[in-house]
Amino acid sequence: MATVIIPTPLRKFTGNTSKVEVEGNNVLQVLQALIIRFPELKKHLFDTEEKMRPFINIFVGDKDIRSLNRQDTVVAENAVISIVPAIAGGAL
Length: 92
Known about the structure:
- By secondary structure, the chain is of the alpha+beta class.
- The protein has one domain (about 1-85): Beta-grasp domain (Ubiquitin-like (UB roll)), CATH 3.10.20.
- Helix content is about 15%, strand content about 25%.
- β3 (about 55-60) and β4 (about 65) form a beta hairpin.
- The termini are far apart.
């Protein structure tokens, strides 16, 4: 099973769970399994057209899926997947 790291802002939708083990052959399947377990996450990860929200960054290991095969990125059984919401704000 892959381990999904849940960021602090989304933990209120996972019962304060920081890591979740789920099965899936690719990133999309892993995220779908995650939202089956925690339905409140769906609106934060997917838009109304069932597409992954562009401001959510997903990493498999230390690789951004945007530089791989996006949602079709293959996930090894022992993979660590990190969900990283974009952070706005700040000034120079």
